[in-house]
Amino acid sequence: MAFLNKEIRDGDNQDLTEERRTATFDTDKMAEVIYGSEKLARRRREISHAVSRIPELADSRPLPFLDRFEKVTEGTRKLSVLDRHLAELIDVNDNGEALHLYHEVMGMEGHPLALHEVMFVPALIGQASDEQYEKWLGRAKRREIIGCYAQTELGHGSNLRKLETTATYTPSTQEFILHTPTITALKWWPGALGKSSNYAVVVADLIIKDKSYGPHPFIVQLRDEKTHQPLPGITVGDIGPKMAFNGGDNGYLGFDNFRIPRENLLNRHSRVEADGTYVRPPHAKIGHSAMIRVRSHMATGQGWLLGHALTIAIRYSAVRIQGFLEDKSHEVKVLDYQTQQHRLFPAIARAYAFIFCGFETIRLYDQLILDMNSNGNTSGMADLHALTSGLKSVVTHFVGQGIEQARMACGGHGYSMASYISEIYGVAIGGCTYEGENMVMLLQLARYLVKSVELVKSGKANQLGPMVAYLAVADHKVNLATGPDSYVKMFQYISKRQSWKATEKFLKFMENGDSRDVAWNKTAVELTRASRLHTRLYIMETFIRRVESVTDIPVKSALTDLLNLHLNYELLDVASYALEDGFMSSNQMDFIKNQLYSSLEKIRPNAVSLVDSFQFSDMQLRSVLGRRDGHVYQNLFDWAKSSPLNKTDVLPSVTQYLKPMMEKAKL
Ligand SMILES: CCCCC/C=C\C/C=C\C/C=C\C/C=C\C/C=C\CCCCC(=O)SCCNC(=O)CCNC(=O)[C@H](O)C(C)(C)COP(=O)(O)OP(=O)(O)OC[C@H]1O[C@@H](n2cnc3c(N)ncnc32)[C@H](O)[C@@H]1OP(=O)(O)O
Ligand SMILES: Cc1cc2nc3c(=O)[nH]c(=O)nc-3n(C[C@H](O)[C@H](O)[C@H](O)COP(=O)(O)OP(=O)(O)OC[C@H]3O[C@@H](n4cnc5c(N)ncnc54)[C@H](O)[C@@H]3O)c2cc1C
């Protein structure tokens, strides 16, 4: 008999199988929606299956038991095995397939190519001229060279304009001299810089004839291509262990008057002529394109990370039996508790929402690049910068919260590395910092919102882009019972009110004599609130659009339940903004709460199937608690037994220190 949930197998934990039997939709069809196409969803399954038949691609030991050195070695070993099998496993020109293969095999702890693919190659694609393409891109794509993106310094990350590494042009030799003038100018943090990369895109302050032109990207060889030794004038190394990503070698880098040829300034958009004449780019911030690209991809990537943690927590919650409801002779699955559902189901809805919203944002990014490359049109940059700044901040923050709730939802075993949730958490919350610290990025979006409100105030509402048009719309009371659109209208009201209030507060400080920067700082918390609300509205709207477009009726129905939960949860979370001025009534508040509780009940039978639809393999999850077959306890015991501490019954530390202490106490 064919089941709707495709994870059912003989011999699985019965409680989990029981959950899977109640699915109201086909998990393969849901996976098509999650991954955007039938082909990618199917290929993911095929690739995972093919990988499972190559023993060398498996982790040699559970990763939590490896020390840092072993993690780096293990990641590199697997990369070399993958390299031999790449063409047989995937269509190497298909990014979706490649991304899945790397996540499956390499996990999320970092590896030598992590930044090569994510930032080095994209920076070349976005910033290199045709001649530079010719010279570097082929080599980079074939991985003859391995690169990273070296921008952040020990003393500066957020404020790019103050990067201290200099690239001084010398017309007599037609070279740039890269130099690290102070300790704080050391590049610090770039992924895969410390030990793996032999090239880097280095962002440095361009100086011509004593004049600074601000940060520009340069391609720089760091190590000898044969020996891998750092070149003379280069100091490079690993920055040490981190909260997560410990299979990766985030690094430091210093230059001692290191010379590179003039052609190494990535000069698709701006260049320096032989005589030192500077040719400006069409948009001042076009050099930030590699960052915009990653920010555009972050919502989807982070949504998947949340999906990992929730797959573990929901499956485990169906297997974990503890306490009673009505029948005192049978303990219940912890998934039956309303508090457990409230902890986990809104996060499932968010994971789906972030993935869908991310796809829409990636399309906007791709369109911008098309416009820039085909007709030099950079007019969409400011909009996309504002949007992605807010989105990366809101999504990473909520994903962190959601993963932490997933950990707590697994009780004591969630705290064990056997759950693997702490690793997922460490990786995900890195996103709150990398690609722009969240507060800093929320304030970037706030600049855009304030400008938009100022446009409306000065009678130029017709100049507003579609995403902020609501800032000019008159207020109307909302009947929430009429469906998703009414939730959007209520959210628009809240978001608009906050943007206006923050703008007016900011303007008032200036009227009272504060400088723009001081007024901005005094309003900053209110401004970040406006940015969050605006972004949550965008996420809500994209979620609605995506669900509306689904054609498979059972899938659409299950997604509608998730969407309703999301709408009520989100509105409840921000209701105080509309309650404080009476725009929302207490009756409406009760309505939202009741809708939310009834959504939890509706979702309950599909909970396991909703996370199964992510179709993460056991290899990808690396979690004893989240195993597909639900056989948690025996495997937890086996996992613990494999701890290196259990190799002997009596540890040398006991013999050497503990025993003498105890013996002394006896005297
Ligand atoms: C296939 C891709 C996959 C990607 C991975 C996706 C998801 C990961 C998900 C899961 C992870 C799983 C595994 C992880 C594996 C690997 C890890 C992946 C990636 C890690 C990479 C990390 C790399 C880095 O961190 S690189 C360093 C990043 N650094 C920053 O982001 C610095 C932040 N600061 C800035 O960006 C800028 O300083 C600034 C704050 C934006 C200010 O810029 P500045 O130039 O100073 O501007 P200024 O203040 O003068 O403003 C003037 C004006 O310009 C506007 N502006 C600024 N920037 C832009 C822009 N880019 N475009 C358009 N306009 C811009 C600014 O708003 C001002 O406008 P206005 O005057 O107000 O109108
Ligand atoms: C896992 C990881 C991977 C990374 N990979 C790379 C990489 O590959 N390449 C690379 O170049 N870099 C990389 N980075 C560095 C990263 O991009 C920076 O750390 C990040 O941009 C934050 O900058 P910062 O460290 O200077 O933070 P800071 O700016 O020092 O932040 C400290 C605090 O100051 C606040 N703050 C700073 N400025 C303002 C302001 N204007 N207004 C209000 N508050 C402010 C922040 O909100 C924060 O609370 C990575 C970082 C991590 C954690």
Automatic annotation (TrEMBL):
Keyword Zinc recorded: no
Gene3D superfamilies, A to Z: Acyl-CoA dehydrogenase/oxidase, N-terminal domain (1.10.540.10), Butyryl-CoA Dehydrogenase, subunit A, domain 2 (2.40.110.10), Butyryl-CoA Dehydrogenase, subunit A, domain 3 (1.20.140.10)
Residues engaged in binding FAD: T152, G191
Chief location: other
Name of this chain's protein: Acyl-coenzyme A oxidase
Protein biosynthesis keyword on record: no
Domain Acyl-CoA oxidase C-alpha1: 289-450
